[in-house]
Amino acid sequence: MTASTRVRRLLAGAAATGLLAGGAALGTTGTAEAAPAHAPAAASAVTTHHHDHCTWQQGHWQKQWVKGHWAKHWVKGHYADQKVWHPGHYDRHGHWQPGHWTHHPQWVKGHWTKVYVPGHWDTHWVKGHWSCHR
Questions:
Q1: What's the mean pLDDT in 94-123?
Q2: 111 pLDDT band (50/70/90 cuts)?
Q3: What is the mean pLDDT of residues 115-129?
């Protein structure tokens, strides 16, 4: 049952295409007979391509001036030397213990910060394109 429906749709589509193609062919012959004097001008308009006056510019890197601007900048994490001062004191035997420094390296996480980037030259990619000059 499904195959017969598919066959019917296929035949209907082919018939419609044939009718459209036949109607278009009749339409062109009617216009060709109605204006035979202008046929050479119409033929030259059809064969003209816009690429006859155009050249292909390949993609390339091009320098461009970028104004100064603020940009986000990642500051990576690092170890910071945490110096701690321990003041002098008397111990439990009554002896004076002088003060001293101790060093404790601690990890400082990375973070984003805003940085001013002064104006500079930068390169950017220009895609290939048609360049038409008349």
A1: 92
A2: very high
A3: 93
- Distance of alpha carbon 6 from the chain centroid: 44
Q: Which of 65, 81, 54, 78 is nearest to 118 (CA)?
A: 65
State the DSSP H helix or E strand holding residue 34, giving kind and residue range, or none if neither.
Answer: helix 2-34
Token pair in block for residue 114: 């805003």
Whole-number Å distance between alpha carbons of 90 and 131? 88
How far from the centroid of its chain's Cα atoms is residue 90's Cα? Answer: 70
> What are the counts of helices (DSSP H) followed by strands (DSSP E) for the chain?
2, 10
How buried is 54 (Cβ within 10 angstroms: 0-12 exposed, 13-18 middle, 19+ buried)?
middle
Residue 67 β-bridge partners:
none
Q: What is the mean pLDDT of residues 93-102?
A: 91
